[in-house]
Amino acid sequence: MDLGIRGRTALVCAASKGLGKGCAMALAREGVSLVITARGAEALQATAEEIRKATGVKVTALAGDITTPEARAQALAACPSPDILVNNAGGPPPGDFRSWGREEWLKAIDANMLTPIELIKATLDGMIARKFGRIVNITSSAVKAPIAELGLSNGARSGLTGFIAGIARRSAGANVTINNLLPGRFWTDRLRSNTEHNARQQGKSVEEVKAALEKTIPAGRFGTIAEFGAYCAYLCSAQAAYITGQNLLIDGGAYPGTF
Questions:
Q1: Is the N or C terminus of the chain more exposed, i.e. has fewer CB atoms within 10 Å?
Q2: First vs last Cα of the chain: how many Å apart?
Q3: Beta bridge partners of 180
Q4: Which sign does the torsion angle of CA 188, 190, 194, 200 carry?
Q5: How far is CA 211 from CA 101, 215, 222, in A?
Q6: pTM
Q7: Taking phi first (over 0 means left), then psi (-120 to 50 degrees means alpha), and beta for anything else, what does residue 220 get?
Q8: pLDDT tens digits for 21-31?
Q9: Distance (Å, rounded) from C-alpha 118 to C-alpha 196?
Q10: Taking the alpha carbons of 139, 184, 16, 168 in that order, is the dihedral positive or negative?
Q11: What is the spatial distance between Cα 168 and Cα 132, in angstroms, rounded to a whole number?
């Protein structure tokens, strides 16, 4: 299926590995040129070269922490008029809310709420003027079903979700969509870190906790970054123009609700 985005340009944040890498690779396979960012220069360059070899598209790799004004300015200088924006940033650490102070809360909100808002603010009007734009925010299934030890993430990402609900419908008439993609459990560094935290809390091995988690998922396994990337690429497609303001789960059936 041709997604109708060949020749477009995408800015994909936190794309050196995990879900961001899955999105970048899937878009590249559709012929989309990329500007990708991540904090770790070595892993980022390796991913950029892997994508170039696999797809032949142009990939510009910019090392930097997208949650900082300096890295955002660098990314926007390299990609001032993206057709596609994939917002992504590492989540805050797990823990007990009793141990978090104002500094921890502000850091989480800055990374997982204000950073995507700043990037949307910088790119949305250009998309509207060009009559094409796709913005995908990678949030978390915790927006629908909060995870107790991830209170910082629950709060910050829910704030972004509310903000997106208020603006997504206003650009749809210009063929610019904004959606949130809510991952469940994928065996990324993030899930590995959370699993290690829970294993310590429970006095169990990481493998024991991991196996128990997989049993709770109707699909019987964790998701792959290729699956996640394919979903993201579809949301960025020409065919997805009628989808906006949505919170779309990809979790193997783990969420038990009707709505």
A1: C
A2: 29
A3: 137, 247
A4: positive
A5: 33, 6, 10
A6: 0.93
A7: left
A8: 999 999 999 99
A9: 32
A10: negative
A11: 14
Largest CA distance in the chain: 56
248 phi/psi in degrees, rounded to 5: -105, 115
Closest CA to 249 of 120, 134, 143, 115: 143
Phi first, then psi, for residue 121 (nearest 5°) are -60, -35
Structure tokens at 75: 């990314």
Tokens (6 digits) for 244 = 């906006």
Measured CA to CA, the distance from residue 29 to residue 81 in angstroms comes to: 21
Q: What are phi and psi of 183, to 5 degrees?
A: -75, 140
Digit-coded pLDDT (tens) for 186-206: 988 878 888 888 899 899 998
Question: What span, in angstroms and rounded, lies between the C-alpha atoms of 180 and 205?
Answer: 33
Is residue 160 within 8 A of residue 89, CB to CB? The reply is: no
| Start-end of H helices in the chain | 18-29, 41-55, 69-78, 102-109, 115-130, 151-167, 189-202, 206-215, 225-235
Are 15 and 88 spatial neighbours (Cβ–Cβ below 8 Å)?
Answer: yes
In this structure, what token pair is assigned to residue 223? 């998701």
What is the C-alpha to C-alpha distance for residues 186 and 13, in angstroms, rounded to an integer?
18
Q: For residue 89, report the phi and psi dihedrals to the nearest 5 degrees.
A: -160, 150
pLDDT, tens digit, for every residue of 79-132?
999 999 999 998 888 889 999 999 999 999 999 999 999 999 999 999 999 999
In the chain, the amino acid numbered 72 is R
